[in-house]
Amino acid sequence: MSKNTSIKWNKFDLLWALNLFGTAVGAGVLFLPINAGMGGFWPLVVMAILVGPMTFLAHRALSRFVLSSSVPGSDITDVVEEHFGKNAGKLITLLYFFAIFPILLIYGNGITNTVDSFIVNQLGLASPNRALLSFVLIASLISVMLMDEKIMLKITELLVYPLVLILFALSIYLIPEWNTSMLHEMPTAQGFITTLWITIPVLVFSFNHSPAISSFSQSQQRQYKDLELTEKHAGHTLKGTATILLVFVMFFVFSCVLTLTPQELTLAKSQNISILSFLANKFDNPYISYLGPFVAFLAITSSFFGHYLGAKEGLEGLFIKMRDDKKINRKKLNYLTALFFLFTLWGVAIINPSILGLIESFGGPIIAAILFIMPMYAIRKIPAMQRYQGQFSNVFVTVMGLIAISAVIYGLF
Predict the structure, then answer these.
(1) Is the pLDDT assigned to residue 353 strictly greater than 80?
(2) Looking only at Cα atoms, what is the longest distance across the chain?
(3) CATH superfamily membership of 14-412
(4) Average pLDDT of 292-305?
């Protein structure tokens, strides 16, 4: 296949682009306009310019890393061991699992709270038994993940279409309410840089679909066989994902930020409610308050699937690496993994602890290191990836990764 052949969109690539979009857009999208807009309009413009290339280039590099294995069909845990040795492989697999697993716990807890809140506040019914509700919801989500890949992609597609549509419709709906108060807020040079630095991780993690990248890359490889063709289709799909994220999520963020004044954004932050709840209260519009839980449900469910893929890969990778005999029944392991996730997520959803967000924060630097730094290090050190050396995008991804990691660590302390 010649280098100049352009890749055309097909159904398979589109389904994966939507799946990756769903992985990235968790319920956090409902808090993103508040968190990203707090620093003012102009830093947000700069972030919108940076976040598209950051998202695409970092995820493409991670996908190329997964595809760099000499053994076709290897997942990220196998590739890490192949390139960095057994001990480093175990350590990175362990970190990879513990960076994604807490997010899965948050989603198991979050979907229970979202549905419970909807039943009580919107439907006006009594709160159902929490243990029963959480079991039904979490078991339903995990059973989808045990289905065939094509069915799982189809279900994600059915969730993501209304999610995209609602975000877009809300963004359009708010246009008549836009005001210029945010445009007049001019931060100092130092304030501008500080805001950018602190907010970059917020956007990085709102656009992060790295937990699904390994499964995505393997799926592309099974579909296209040839490495060059696989890489082209993977890159094409990832560019599509980054574009959809940029257009729909950032349009939603800008529309919300331009609707509110700086004082209202500060108030929304102090009330710790989602942007849709705040807008529903501001406009006294019951429809927006009904859409809030629905968007949260769609976002949590679609994001759960992508994070499940990553956590499952990490857990199974750890199990396989701890056992030296390679004769492992993968189907049996798949069901055992599903049972482990079912009972841990169910237990956490029943307890409903308040420290989950804190645990997730500690996973932030690990995700950023795996997404931004590890593939760039591999390009420098691993023969299979040295053909990507000397590109400016490598410097850009490394610098942005270091900025994101430093800001996340600063935010923790």
Answers:
(1) yes
(2) 65
(3) Amino acid/polyamine transporter I (1.20.1740.10)
(4) 91
